[in-house]
Amino acid sequence: MNEIPARRLWLAVLCGYLALGATLQELPGYVVSRFSAGPAAAGLAVGLAFAATAATRPFAGRAADGGLARPVVLAGALLTTLAALAHLLAPDFGVLLLARLVMGAGEGALFSGALPWVLTGTPADRRGRTAGWFGLSMWGGLSAGPLLAVGMRQAGGTAAVWWTVVALPLVSVLLVASTRGQAQRSPVLP
């Protein structure tokens, strides 16, 4: 069996979700100030990413279980990076909404591809514990991302926040791209 790059995958998911978490802090004010939209539009922009994540996860997880975890995780990290850049460069609110959908889909693929990859190399009696610890990469990023956004805003303004949001999933891409081998087909599939 291939060595499972659990630490790299954990860090890749953390970086991706730090970026998403940072957008939760920054996005409402950004929508209002940059696009002259109201609170309902800001709420829509925030929520769209999570709807896309929820829609993507079953498909990404199924593909990962089928032995495609590495391409799923890499695609998720790439989509998240491109979407983050689109947040920064969006010429109008519609493009921002599209970027939110793409970011959500990327995040869904990132986590739902990485977890099965890690679990294929985990002994059956430690899978629950491993899934719990691995889940901290997602929830830790969502929790710490808003604090990171506040710190970046204080240090360098709005542009610093958005460039950080772009850089974090790019780190995810590099971490996943540096892995060797491929996750095996999930042992629990028929």
Topology record:
Layout: H1 6-35, H2 39-89, H3 93-120, H4 127-177
Helix pairs in contact: 1-2, 1-3, 1-4, 2-3, 2-4, 3-4
Mean pLDDT: 93
Q: Into how many domains do the coordinates divide?
A: 1
Which architecture does the CATH hierarchy give at level 2? Up-down Bundle
In DSSP terms (H or I, runs of 4 or more residues), the helix count works out at 4
- Uncertain segments are none
What is the H-and-E element order?
A: HHHH
Task: State which percent range the strand residues make up.
Answer: under 5%
Shape: elongated
* Name of the CATH superfamily: MFS general substrate transporter like domains
Can you give the helix content as a percent range? over 70%
Oligomerization status of the protein chains: single chain
InterPro entries: MFS, MFS_dom, MFS_Exporter, MFS_trans_sf
Protein name: MFS transporter
Main location: membrane
GO molecular function, one term: transmembrane transporter activity
